[in-house]
Amino acid sequence: MVEVKQVTKRYGGKTVVDRVSLTVPPRQLTSLIGPNGAGKSTLLAMMSRLISKDDGEIWVEGKEISCYRTEELAKKISILKQSNHIAARLTVNELVSFGRFPYSRGRLTREDRNYVREAIRYMELEELQNRYIDELSGGQRQRAYIAMVLAQDTDYIFLDEPLNNLDMKHAVQMMKVLRQLVDELNKTIVVVMHDINFASCYSDHMVALKDGTVICEGDVSSIMRNEVLHRIYDLDVRVQTIENRRICVYF
Amino acid sequence: MSKRMKVAVLVVLVLVLAVLFLFTHLRGDLEYVLRSRGEKIMAMVFVGWAGAVSTVLFQTMTHNRILTPSIIGLDAVYMLVQTVVVFFFGSTTLTMMSDTSHFLFSAGTMMGFSVLLYSFLFRREGQNLYFILLVGMILGTFMQSVTSFLQYLIDPNEFSIIQDRMFASINNMKTDLLWPAGWCIAAATAYTYRHLHELDVLSLGKDHAINLGVDYERIVKRLLMVVALLVSISTALVGPIMFFGLIVANLAYAFFQTYEHRYLLAGAGLFGIAALIGGQLIVERVFVFSTPLSVIVNIVGGAYFLYLLIKERKAW
């Protein structure tokens, strides 16, 4: 269980995340939504100790995040950010193998190799596994990074805009994979999402941030409402139900 | 060719160059010549290794393949210290200073500068690495300006003494210091060796490294000290060599095509040693000592640096 209690982050004099409290529901897919600059990515980065928090507490399975040894936490939480430029020359297989670093410290056992193979299979990267990542398309590369996170085999997976740079087909594929991870492998996933309709169709739980605070949270049907979305985005929207999915028309 | 094979090839290359250096053009007192050449080779092994390893470490931490550790201003500290000594105490103080005290004094001031810089900058948690580089660069430029200013005021004869120290030269090398320098470099290498896999992870970038459970701040701090130690020692031993580490590090990246630091570090180190011995062969046998080694290294290195810049530009 991950619990965020009164967490605050300031940059200079500006408060980017302001006393946010939040409980991440286990074994569900939670989307963080909200306008640009709402503090979604900052919150996610604090929840995965990529950046330090100025105030508040983050509890991960009964222990405050700063009390963890960083290698211990790497077996519980994995985080993938939106921009992933890697200068080193790596093949897909080598990249995915890095996911086992928290367990093997670089010396892969047979068990580690099984995890790597399994992750590559799960993301359908078998044919690409010996290609260098700088030779892949954006979608393929994104899948390779997700495979690395899978190999890391953590209960919690945090993703910052995983659909960035993906076309429709690959975006849908990505969300289906995330859904499978929750439904089949019992992972708890938190994603920062910009496309409200993707969030609506694939998440269990939605958390809306605005100006550094949580302004509402709940299941899809409670968030995907005209007046709620209007409050979040300051935009007149109409939510329609199409094939049992709530789709927001905002054009 | 497997990566191990490539390392073996480089080892052979170094050995061949060393044999050429030792046993060709033998004249005069055989024992004396061989002994002095042997010492030079040792110095080149240490300096080549230290320069290459420090550059690879530095580039891995900064994710930038055209940076060299000289950006944190250690060469500038070295030159400033030499100049200040001559300016205030006269060139005799510098030339009469025993090798050991000169070495300790030069390496000490450089290490002192790094410790001060890092401890000052790392006091605030979560400090950006690039910020440290920027501060180092500005301080380095400032010290260079002070150095040139003092050099203008100095008596021309005295200046020639400093000028000698401005260029790295194996012939100026202080033989008494070979062993202590070697031990320091070996210690730094041993420390690096223990963290080879963490280095591999660091090359993925800060966020990935933290995600994979690397104690980023701690390891970066320590590796920066290792870099400072290596640069200080090799500079104090033979003088500043600017582009040298940059060339050999990039040669190693191109030759090995891997992320594994076990090969990158060994490869860059061996390239470094080969480049120095090869360069010194040219200096001694072709130019008959008329040019210092660092001039040749800087010309070749500068050209290669421009090539890298143009290539990187195309990649954008």
From TrEMBL, chain A:
Domain named ABC transporter: residues: 2-236
Lipid bilayer topology: Peripheral membrane protein
Gene Ontology molecular-function annotations: ATP binding
The keyword Transmembrane is annotated on this UniProt entry: no
Protein keywords: ATP-binding, Cell membrane, Ion transport, Iron, Iron transport, Membrane, Nucleotide-binding, Transport
Gene3D superfamilies per record: P-loop containing nucleotide triphosphate hydrolases
Compartments, record wording: Cell membrane
Signal peptide per UniProt: none
UniProt cross-references to InterPro entries, sorted A to Z: AAA+_ATPase, ABC_transporter-like_ATP-bd, P-loop_NTPase, Siderophore_ABC-ATPase
Name of the molecule in the record: Petrobactin import ATP-binding protein YclP
From TrEMBL, chain B:
Record keyword Chloroplast present: no
InterPro entries xref list: ABC_BtuC-like, ABC_transptr_permease_BtuC
Location in the cell: Cell membrane
Membrane topology category: Multi-pass membrane protein
Keywords: Cell membrane, Membrane, Transmembrane, Transmembrane helix, Transport
Spans traversing the lipid bilayer: 7-26, 41-58, 70-90, 102-122, 129-154, 223-256, 263-283, 289-310
Keyword Membrane (UniProt): yes
Listed Pfam families: FecCD
Family recorded in the similarity comment: Belongs to the binding-protein-dependent transport system permease family. FecCD subfamily.
Protein name, entry field: Petrobactin import system permease protein YclO
Species assigned in the record: Geobacillus icigianus
Top-level taxonomy: Bacteria, Bacillati, Bacillota, Bacilli, Bacillales
